[in-house]
Structures are given as C-alpha cells and as structure tokens.
Amino acid sequence: MSQKRNLPSWISSRDPPHPQPESKKKPKDDDDDEHNIRNAPQSSSTTMDFSKLLEGVVFVLSGFVNPERSTLRSQALSMGATYQPDWNSDSTLLICAFPNTPKFRQVQSNSGTIVSKDWIAECYTQKKLVDIEQYLLHAGKPWRKTSASQNTTIRVEEPFSVTEVKKWARDDLTETISWLESQEEKPAPGEIKRIAAEGVLTCLQDAIDSLEQKKDVGSVTELWSFVPRVVKELGKMESSSKTENSTASKDQLCKQAKSWKMIYEAELAQKGEEASGTKSRRTSGVASGYDSDETVEMTEEEIDHAYRNVSLDKVEANSTPSLSSASSASSLSCPRTMGAPLPPKEANLFKLIVKSYETKQYKKGLKAADAILKKFPSHGETLSMKGLTLNCMDRKTEAYELVRLGVKNDIKSHVCWHVYGLLYRSDREYREAIKCYRNALRIDPDNLEILRDLSLLQAQMRDLSGFVETRQQLLTLKPNHRMNWIGFAVSQHLNANASKAVEILEAFEGTLEDDYPPENELCEHTEMIMYKVSLLEESGAFGKALEELHKNEPKIVDKLSYKEQEAYLLWKLGRPAEASKLYRVLLSMNPDNYRYYEGLQKCLGLYSESGQYSSDRIEKLNALYQSLSEQYTRSSAVKRIPLDFLQDERFKEAVAKYIKPLLTKGVPSLFSDLCSLYDHPRKPDILEQLVVEMEHSVRTTGSYPGSDVKEPPSTLLWTLFFLAQHYDKRGQYDAALGKIDEAIAHTPTVIDLYSVKSRIMKHAGDLTAAAALADEARCMDLADRYINSECVKRLLQADQVYISVASAEKTAVLFTKEGDQLNSLHDMQCMWYDLASGDSYFRQGDLGRALKRFLAVEKHYSDISEDQFDFHSYCLRKMTLRSYVGMLKFEDRLHSFPYFHKAAIRAIRCYLKLHDTPKSTAEEDEMSKLAPAQKKKMKKQKKAEARAKKEAESKSEESTATGVSKSGKRNVKPVDPDPHGEKLIQVEDPMAEASKYLRLLQKHSPNSLETHLLSFEVNMRKEKFLLAFQVTDYLLSGGYAQVTAVKQLLKLDAENPDSHRSLVKFFLKTGSTSAPTTEAEKLRCSVLEAERPSISQLQNKSLVEANKEFLGRHEDSLVHRAAYAEMMCLLDPSKKTEAIKLIEDSTNKVVQQTNGALGVAREWKLKDCIAVHKLLETVFLDSEAASRWKSRCAEYFPFSTHFEGKRSSVMPDSVYNSSLKSNENGDTPNHPMGQTELNDGQLEAFKSLTVST
What we know:
TPR repeats lie at residues 414-447. With 1253 residues, this protein is mainly α.
C-alpha cells in the first residue's frame, strides 16, 4: 500500500530519486502552448495575413499618454484589431501600461484578459502572432472573438467559468491552511500561507504530470493527505469521460488542467501579495503611516513626459535622489551594531521593537530592546528605539538620556538621528527636530520617511523655501505618487508662486488617462480642478481660470461651487450681464444667502463698501429688491437688506413690514438682527417712534396701527421686550427697566425677559443685581447650557470677593463631566470662562489665579496651532486642498483673534502690576482693604487651599506609582503642580515675561491702540526710551524710519486721551534725564531731537502749550478734560487744585431727544465716570474730591453700585442687597422679585400665576 503524501515543506511531493523544483518547468510542445494562451490560433496563424493577425480582437488602452498611446493604437489597428476607448461587454483585451489602473481593476473584476504593450510591439515587429503567455498581466476570458472564418482548434467547452475556478483557489487555500493548523507539527505562522499555496499548486502539477504520462488522476489523489478541489474536479471529469464515452481525452484534460493552473497561480499570488502587504504599498518603520497616499502609479515614460512639461529646479549635488533607495523599506529596518548589521536573531528582535512601537505594545518593545542590549549594550539604534518607547510611556527623562546615548554611540546612523527628531517633535520642539532630520538626511539623503517627516515640520514652521525643496526631492524620488505632485504644487503656492503651482498641476494632469477619474475618485478630482482654478484666479489669470472651469465642467461634481466660481470670474472679467444671470440662478437655489445678493449688486453696479448710496442708486436698489421680494416671498434676507440703504419714510414703511410679523410670532432675536441700524444717524429715532406707536395701538385696540386684525396677547409682550432693549441700547436705563418689568408682569414665565433685565442691570452698573437675575433665569431652565453660561458670566462680573467666583465655578461645572470638572472646562478650551474668571481674580488682587487663567487662553491657542500638524499629510491625501490652504492662512493670523488679544493684554497688565508692587506689599495692601470678616474668611480659605494642595500632591505620587496601563503607558492625567498660580507670580523678571507677550501683540495686532499703549508702558519701565518711542532704524543718510509706540499711537488716534498722556510722559521723562555721557546716550538724544519736529503736536511748542492746545480741541469731553488735568498736575504739581476744579466743572449735557422719548440720556458714560473717580482717588490722592465726584455721579447713575446709587443693590432696602448678605453668610440666596428658591427646576412660585390678557 502506498504511503500518503504530505505538503512540500514537510515531505517533498516528489520521490527522492526524482526531485524537480517548482521553479523549473518542463518544455512544452506547440499544442500545449496553444492551450496555455487560451484560444490563440494554431501555428498556422504565423502564415496569416499581417492585416488579420489580430482579427476578432477588440482592445482598450490604459495608462498610456501620447505619442505612445497613438503609436500602440495604430500598430494594433494595422494588424486587424478593433479599438474602443472604454471597456464594455464587446471588449476582449486590455493593453495596460502598469497594474492597478482603474481600467485594470475593472477588467480584472470582469475576468477579462490583460496584456502588456510589449506583446503588440513584438507582433508588429516580427509580423506574426507571438506567444501571449509571457506578456499576460491577467489571464481571463478569451482575448479574441472566434468566427467560422478563423482557422482555430476545436476546443473542449469550458465546464466552469473563470470566476468559479478563482473561488476554488481561494477555498482550497483556506482549507489547506486549516488542515495545516490542525497538524501536531505545523509551520511557523508567518510561513503557513506560503506553504499552503505551494502545496495546492504542487498537487495540481502532479495531476498534470500524471495526465501527460497518460495515467489516471486517481493515482495522484492516493498520494496526498489533502486534495484540492481542482484535482478532485479533474478526477470527476476523467471518470465521466470513461463512463459516458466522452470525447474528452487525457490530452484535452491536461490542457484544461494547465489552463486552471494559470488561474490558480494568479489568484494565489494575489492572495500572497495581500498577506505580505505589497499591495497596500505601506512601508514599515517609525512613521509608516505616510505611504497611504500612493494611489496613482505611473510608468517611467509618463514620468519623463511629466518632467518635460514642468521645469523642476535642480536639486543640490549632495542630495541628488537615487531611485534605487526610494523603494527601500523603513528607515528603521536595517539595524546595525556600530556600523555592522546585527545577527539574524537580534535583527528580528529589533523589528519586533519597531512593530511594538507602531502597535503601542510598549512593554513588549521594551522587553525586546533589553534582550538586544543584554548582548550589545552599546547598540545605538536599539538604545534610541528604547528611548522612543519610554517617551510614549511618559518617562521623558530616561527617554532623552537613552536617545542621546544612542546618537553618541552611533552618530552615523540615520535611524538614531531620525528617532531623536521624533522625540523632539513629540515635545513640540520643532526647530530641534528639523536639525535632527537634516543630520539624518546627510547620512541617508534619499530616505523617504525622513523627507516626509521633514516636510511636515517645515510646513508647520512655515519654512516655505525649505518646504519647496523637500517636496521637490520627494517628487524626484517617488514621482509615481499623486501626493508628491500635489504636495509640490501646494508648497509652491504657499511660497507665493501660484503660476508655478499651476504648471505642476498641468504636468500631473498630462499623465492621467483620457477617461480619468473613475467614479470613486470624482470628488477628489473635482477638488483638484477647483484648486487649480483658484490658483489661476490668485495669479490674476481670470480668463484662463474661467476656461479651465468650463473645460472640466463634466468632471466637477460640486455644481454649487462651480456656479459660484463661474459667477465671480465673469464679474472679474468685466462681464456683469452674464454674472448677474448666474447670481439670480444661485438666488433661486438659496434666496437667504447674503453673498449672492452682494454679488448681484456688484454686477449691477449698485454696491458700496461704505454703505453710503446716492439717491439715484437708492432708487435702483429699491426697485431691485422690490422685484426680488415678489419672487422670493419667504426669504428673510430680501426684506432685511433694504433696511440698510433705505431712508426716512421708505425706511419706516419697510421696517414696519419687517418687524410686525416677527413681533407677532415672538422672535427674541429681533433686536439683535436690527442692532446694526443704530449706527445710522436717524434710524434709531424712526424705530423708536414706530415701535412706540405699535405698543400704544396694541395696548389700546389689540391690533397694529391701521389694521383691523386682532393680535395675540403675546404681541404686546414682545413689543415691550423690543422696547426694553432699545432703551438699554440708548442708555435710558429707567425706561428700559420700566418696559422689561411690565413685560415680566405680563408673562412671568418667559426666561428671555430675565436675561435681558440682567443685561440692563449690568449696563446700568449694578452687577450684583445682574448676577441675581441671571441666576433666576438659569433656575427656570436648568437644562439650558447657554443660560447657564450667561449666569456664570454675571456671577464673575459681580466680584463679591471669592463668594461669586466660587458660585461661578460651581455653576460652570454643571455641564461638565463628573470628576475633575475644572480641568474639564480647560480641556473644552472654554476661553470665555478663563477670561471672565481671570478678570474677576485680577480685580480682586489675586494675580496668581488671574495669570493662571490668562495664560490658559494662550495655551489653548498654542494647542489650536499644534492641531494643524495632523492635517499637513491628511489634506494632501484626501485632496481637500482649498480647505487646507484656507486653514493655513487662518492659522497664520490665529493670534490676532480677540480672545488671544484680550488674554495677552491682561497678562501683560498682571506682570506690570507685579513689577510695580512687590508680592509682600501687594498682599498687605489687598488684605488691608478687606473687612475683618473677609480677612478671617481669606485666612480660612488659604488654609483649605494648602490642605487641598497637599492632598493633590499625595494623590499624584500614588497615581505615578500605580497608574500604568497594560501597554506600559501611564493613563492618569498629571496633576497641576501650581493650581493657584503661586509659582507664576514668583517670576524673577516680570518685564521679561511681559515683553514676550508684547512681541506677539506687536506682530499680530499692530493696529490696536492697546498694543502700543502697553509697549510704551513696558519699555518706559525698562528705561528703554528708544523702544518706548520705537525708532527702529537709524539711516546713515540722516533720516529716521517711521515708528510705532508713541508715534504709532499718534498715527492711530492722536486725539485719544491715552495717546496724549503717553506723548507728554515720554518727553517729560526724557527731558528730565541727566546730560548724556556715553555714546549710546548721546545717540539716543540726537535721535529724539531729530524726531521731535516731526510730531505736529509739539512743533515749536512746549509740553504745557501742547497740553493747553489739546484741551482747546476737546473742551466739552469729560475724558479729555481728565487727561488734560492729569498732565497739568504732572507738569506742574502746584496746579493740583486747579486741575481738580477743571474736572469738577465738567458738564454732563443731556442728549437731545426726539419723539417724546422716555427718560433722559446724557453724554457721560458710566465707565468714564468710574475712571475719573479712580483718577481723583489714586492719582490726585484727594479723597474729598473723590467723594464729591461719587455723590454727583450717584445722581446720574442711580443703579451703579460703584457710586452707591439710591436704586442700586448696595442700598439697605434692596432685595438684591438681602440676597448678597445671605450669600456672604453662606445661606441659600433669596431670589429677587419675591420668588421662592427654585429646586430642581420646579417653579413653585409660578403655580398660581396666570397669563394676563
């Protein structure tokens, strides 16, 4: 009995005396070759007419560009073939330049036959039909349509389709792997798939050999322990031919088996590629994730064609790319021992370290690293990888020590330098990381991984020239990847070379096929086209941009963007008639888009940037919007826009039509919508008159003026609501409070009423009452996050020492996750809270906490800036190019946004206060101002804070010891070592810290008056007078550059009181200094003497004269009179009494009212009066004058708590005052308006209320 045979890796499938390696193939006769090429003509075809060699072949081309494409097509047509541009059911053969094109994948999935271009060339050159087998890229269906006229061999009909045979191959591979895994002695996991495939093919080859020797297939199945399906089917066909007297001879079965073997080989090879990762085109290594952009492959011919169309700058001689190294594996795949490779065992361990790092199995990686270092303790690359792994486990100190040691031990290893750069990059030390990458590239100049990492950092740091150079080198090394072309184009664009970027994109487009893109890449291709159009627009080539847009219209799927871009380009090209038609089409799609109306106005010549229009243009605009309103009756924008340009009676008529339905409907945001109209001189009066008439009519008749339609009761409520906000905007707080109280009495359950009343009280100066009202609104709807945030703001603005802040913190964290809730606010980048709480702490003198909050905002902006790093590769890969460039431009001006501007200014003021008042003195001053009860409370609070700090430190130590995950990474958030900012206020040089933030403001907010005021304050304290004056460039020709600081203040707003103060203080300070002795002092004096005549305020005038002239220009302004008085006292201290009298003689004039307005509005603003009071108290040091000013202002601002107005919450009989006292005693606050406490959102006090009609 014969012994069963196993798979080849275990027992050879051949008998020992007759070994035959699989790689060697037996010679085949002509008949075998004919069937292997599947349906090719017999050898008689070699004598066929040349013009009929490929008769019956319907071919399609893929991956070729002209002139090669036309040459191939002509050759095939001359041999009788038929050409089709796209693959369909009639096509028989695909001639492909390289695998993985869209057509290749389509034909492969349809089981078509694919051949290389060389077959056509050989047939054409030799004038005969050449054997197709060695040129096949994919064996599939017959590549020639058979006909009666063709002299072909009668073949046995295929019993199974190609798709079925492919499924057999996959099933056989799976079953063979399962059988192997079930054996006691089994191969290694990494080899099992390869061994299974070899076994299946060897068994099939045994069956073919048996048939060639005229033996039965059954003799083969007896020798194998596991028989594939294909061999079983051959056995069935053989048995069937015997029992049914079939014509299928062993020769025919042998030919069928060979045909099936070709399909098996192709299918199993594809599976092997998928398993080994060759199809995924990923390279292993530290930064292996960056190869996912390899989506478009190109041949060398296409690459040469692309280079002929775009002139790339030459790469430096020392970094000339080598294509031989471009396809190498990861930069970490070749570990060495001081220049020599590691032994095989240790080399495999090193690969395990890299794999463990990529899969975040850090403990496993450490174990492998220690195993290598046990034998090779000085191996630099292993030391570096161990350090990189430790860095991911939050052991940074050890990580840096190991990586530095690794570089020291193997300084010529690009791996060590690459890892060192990754370490710096993880800590956001990008400049140091770039240095490390450049050192790595000196050793391995063509390493793709390092070049990609370097390009990302260059984009992040805006090293645009370096970014262009690196992207060019990447394209040179790997020109068959789309991302490298797009990245090079984007780099040129960012480097202000849009025309070059267009050339690169055009060169890339030249490599694409005629039918590109496939359906699944339409969106990406659309984005590339639109990006190219935007580049042409940016470079001023509007005509070419429009032509490009029209040419690619069928390929653009974003039709809305297409129409918007087309309309804009037509307008820029001076074709407004066509553009206006397109804007009207866009309006029909979205009649509420304000940009479309603006575009239409521009096309019709009816747009003004300033918003000022002549009467003729107003007539035309009115006619335009009348017609549009008839067309788009439901559009809100078409009714709102005319309110900006209409005047007088037309405005009154239009605004009445606009607001009536919204008041009826009850839209709370109506006033916010109309708020911009208050910048026009007469429109607020018209609005007031109109709404007052409406209120009177609705109150008396129940309908609007001139209407018989009865309005619902809520119309009066929302009319009162609007009027309250109107009077608040105009500073008539009595009238505003009267209207809002009436609205609350009408319907007490509307939350918006309490929020608006809180805002009115804030503007009137009673922050305590505003906080109480905001809290009342919050309790009416505990699930509303916006109202909760409004309440927190009001509580922080109230500044009742630490009580309000504590309440604000407790209220703010109601919508955060459980646990460390204050840290949750920080993680959410809640910048408004940081600013508001920082302001509160600053006003209370707690500079540590204030700085902590302000610098937290700076940290948020730093994080936002860092977040762009991940998008440098993602956006290029996903082809979101316009959004990517827009994001980069946004990031470039990120620090000019208001939140950062406010935080930086406040932080600088904190440092100025730290500089002016030493810490001990500041604490004593603040404590001396507190009441005894508050002092006692402060001491208790500090003790509690110290206790909490100690507990936090102990918890931190415990978490450090225990908080480690299975992967080895610490999963516990680090505890803030300075929660109250105590270390921040212990800074040795506050001015140095202030200068750091000042430089950011000067760079990003150069047009802000506050920036230059702070620059003046900082540099005057540092006694850097030229910096305070900011003479930046001394020209040898004798001239001086235009400057910022004092001169910039005068340039931005010369009449501003602070600008005047800075000017006088500067020249008074510099004029009082001693005579110059050093060369630097002499230079400074000469510069200032030369600059002084250029200042118009000081031309031929003394400082006293300039000060008097300033008063003459602003005699009726309170803030200007105060500035004059302060400078008069500074210039001549003996005139202090005169200066104070000048302030007290100021008159608060009544603003002229029209239409019988309620209440009285005066010129003085509350914040200006408070500033003057502080000036009298702290600068003039006259408590009596300050008291007189306080009493006077209390009459003007009766709700102000600062001036203790008779209607403010500080009065003993105020409901808000009683609420405050309860808060100070730690009791539950009683809400104003006589309501009980609201528990869990249940409004007990409202149960008995009814809505009045």
